[in-house]
Design a protein that fits this description.
The chain has 287 residues and is α+β, with helices and mostly antiparallel strands. It contains two helices and 14 strands. The strands form four sheets. The protein has a five-stranded antiparallel β-sheet with strand order 1-5-4-7-2, with no helix packed on it. Strands 11-10-13-14 form a four-stranded antiparallel β-sheet, with no helix packed on it. Strands 8-9-12 form a three-stranded antiparallel β-sheet, with no helix packed on it. About 11% of the residues have low confidence.
Length: 287
């Protein structure tokens, strides 16, 4: 009967002991190796320990007086406070650390977006513009021409895409080209090709344009002006007497014009002789 009672007490007390602190006697200190961290020099009946980042406390041990007390922390915590329950102050304590588990990320359900088709934008298309320019008006337009007597046809495209075309002139000339997006191109016909038909496709629709110019006149070569002859100056005639010579019994100068210088000369000589004679007479009188 006694043995049965003893066994009953052991079976009954074991679960109770698992649920409380475990007291150990005869062991001098708490563990300080492996996963344990030991804190020495404690005083008072309580002590709070916080685990390093990434660690959790799963078990504790403290010594108070001669008693060692172990406790299991479940679930593990980042900070734990130990309190002496044996009536003595704490002398040291140890804490067993484990790695903090990485939390499993919560999967967030993202609904698949419902596809909504974008309505097709209505594009606006512009017809090509065809214009002809006679060679005589090309002074301000840069274009290479094989002959002066030609017509240049310019094709302008206001669309955002290039447009290819075929052209046919009334004189039988024809060709093809491409008008660049938002740009223009040109081609040349002979002067008698003054009407041109342009065929192309725009927005999957065939288009035909027709343009004409007033028939151009062939450029005529300009004749160089004949230089005006330089006028030759005529010699200035010698001055003539205002009074014409009177004929004296025939043609020739008058008698007065012939003998006047001689008469005046003789008169002068006579005057000088008279003055000289008077001078000599006065000199003699004075002596």
């Amino acid at each position: 009967m006694g043995n049965f009672f003893t066994a009953f007490l052991i079976l009954f007390a074991t679960p109770i002991g698992l649920l409380s602190n475990v007291f150990a006697q005869g062991q001098e200190t708490c563990p300080a190796s492996g996963d344990w961290i030991k804190i020495e020099g404690l005083s008072g009946t309580t002590f709070t320990y916080t685990a390093p980042e990434g660690k959790l406390i799963t078990e504790t041990c403290y010594k108070a007086g001669t008693e060692l007390v172990f406790s299991v922390i479940n679930p593990p915590k980042a900070s734990v406070t130990v309190t002496s329950t044996v009536g003595f102050d704490l002398s040291h304590a140890s804490f067993r650390l484990v790695e903090e588990p990485t939390p499993t990320p919560t999967q967030t359900f993202t609904p698949t977006p419902t596809f909504t088709p974008t309505p097709t934008e209505e594009l606006e298309y512009y017809p090509l513009i065809l214009e002809g320019i006679c060679s005589g008006t090309l002074a301000s337009i840069t274009v290479t021409q094989a002959d002066e007597n030609t017509i240049m046809w310019r094709v302008s495209n206001a669309n955002s895409e290039a447009v290819s075309f075929i052209w046919t002139a009334n004189n039988g000339q024809s060709g093809s080209g491409t008008a660049p997006a938002n740009g223009s191109t040109s081609f040349i016909t002979e002067i008698d090709g003054y009407s041109v038909s342009l065929e192309y496709t725009l927005n999957n629709e065939p288009v035909e344009e027709l343009a004409s110019v007033v028939p151009c006149e062939p450029e005529q070569e300009t004749e160089e002006p004949t230089p005006t002859p330089t006028a030759t100056e005529e010699p200035t005639p010698a001055p003539t007497d205002s009074v014409p010579d009177q004929p004296a019994g025939g043609s020739g100068p008058s008698a007065f014009r012939t003998f006047a210088p001689i008469v005046f000369g003789l008169a002068g000589v006579a005057t000088m002789i008279t003055i000289a004679i008077d001078s000599k007479i006065k000199q003699r009188i004075n002596k």
